[in-house]
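INPUT
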Amino acid sequence: MSATSTAVTSAKAQRSGGSPIRGWNWMASLFLTPALLLLGVFMLYPVISTIVLSFDRGLGNYIRLLTADRRFLDLSTFPPSGALFNNVLWVVFYTTGCIFFGLLIAVLATRVRYEPAIKAIVFLPMAIAATALGVIWRFVYTPDRDTGLLNALLGIFHLGPIAFLGDTGWVNTALIIAGIWGSVGFATVILSAALKGISTEVLEAARVDGARESQIFRRIIIPMLSLPISVVAVTLVINVIKLFDLIYVMTAGGPGSSSRVIAFTMYQEAFPAGRVDYGAAVAVMMLVILIPVLIFNVRRFRSERVVQ
Amino acid sequence: MSGAFGDQALEPPARTTSQRMARFVAKTPIHIALLAIALVWLLPTIGLLITSFRPSEDVLSNGWWTVFTGNLRFTTDNYQSVLGGQGMLTAFLNSVSISIPSTILPLLISALAAYAFAWLEFPLRDTIFLVVVALLMIPVQMTLIPLLDLFAALGLNRGFLMLWIAHTTFALPFGIFLLRNFFITLPRDLIEAARMDGASSWKIFTTVVVPLSVPALASYGIFQFLWVWNDLLMALIFAPRGGQPMTVQVTGLLGTYGTEWHILAAAAFVIMLVPLIVFFSLQRYFVQGLLAGSVK
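OUTPUT
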């Protein structure tokens, strides 16, 4: 529980001096009641119900999920497959992809005068619904060369056409690329703000000492950005665990179940398929996976300035 | 496009035109790389935008890029079709009806609670605040199944009530966290002075705290509005029959018209219209809200 005590310390540290205004306890309860009532009835109670529901068959749901459900986790093949493994692919490639391109764009853009325009262009997909993003990329990936941009480009080199979203070998790559495209703006804006925090004197001194740009990047920029990079990485990992809309819109988990992820499995099992206790177990798995990541996040609330 | 994205470069500005020219040429590889990046981020969206204005027979027979080689036939038929026949106008109004209360309610409720956590004293204050912050961790999936039964048991499974309550509740931990951290930075003297003048807590809240916190309230409000506007998962589960917002409607169109891109393109742009307006008009608040909201 060290994260908890850290947050208490930071809560106290942030208060603007001395003790708070005294003497209005009845007033405080008026201010708090609406929020606490809603949180208690519509959040805490359902969370506890979901946990109870997931143990409806003892540990049966969890045993089945981890050992007998090939659509959730299949270790019999190489590489492994299933929703959980797909989420691992997402965590690795989506997170590194977003940070790589975010850093690249941030570093390149600081050196030109039209930097705000470039950042706005890359940030724009953050504003739009994953549903619209899904339509945009389904259109790009269309196998028909007279419709789909990517296959038209491949056609110039006499390649393809490839059914990116209909081929089990391609589908996860194609989805992750669409996901990266949608989130790079977030990484770019945060890393760019952090980059501007590096003092120009440090960079000038390195240049005067004859450091090459590549050395400056590896020895100065990367180490000085390690905190904001880790903040971006944690946020992206949380995004991945909760990822639902994009998968639902672009492939509905298909072809077959080859592009399912955990959050999609939860929805699919609990609602269209109606296996509520099994869906509850998947939801609990999501929470269990998120807890370590979120504890890290609570700790970094202390360094909130990184984001603002 | 200045403002939220900052505009200072890491090196001193060039003084003369020739210096500027020389610098521009020396950076040719950077300009080429950035041009490529801009194209990758613009072309997919622009392609869909162009497609949404092309006649359906053209969309089916050749690519949107042929408009650059002289195939300049445009129409608004696709928009008329999705707004009328495909029910996107109803869905648009549903999105508005869902999003506005789901923004105002959490703004109001979390501002009240945040004020109590920041400036009032009561037992277990920090502990309760920590529990609220810990609730930030809960994924919505942990509540969806019991919520359906609970809404039915309480007789709340009518109209947009379920969506309003679910969105409001899930917005509270982040709102309370964000606004409390803003409220505690307000000058203590100002609040003390108002108290000395005999102002009640309610009066201090409405006349001192809220007016001074407009930027934070705006960032949170915009973030929450777009969050709800773009939401698909909660809408799939809690939207009433005939009350589906645009995200659900477009997902349905994808199933029915999976390859009729003139319809899908127009529908996608109807969803994107409001976020794009918000993006271009309120960019500063918008970016701050999204960045702060990324913890949600």
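end of record. Chain A has one domain: 59-64+79-306.
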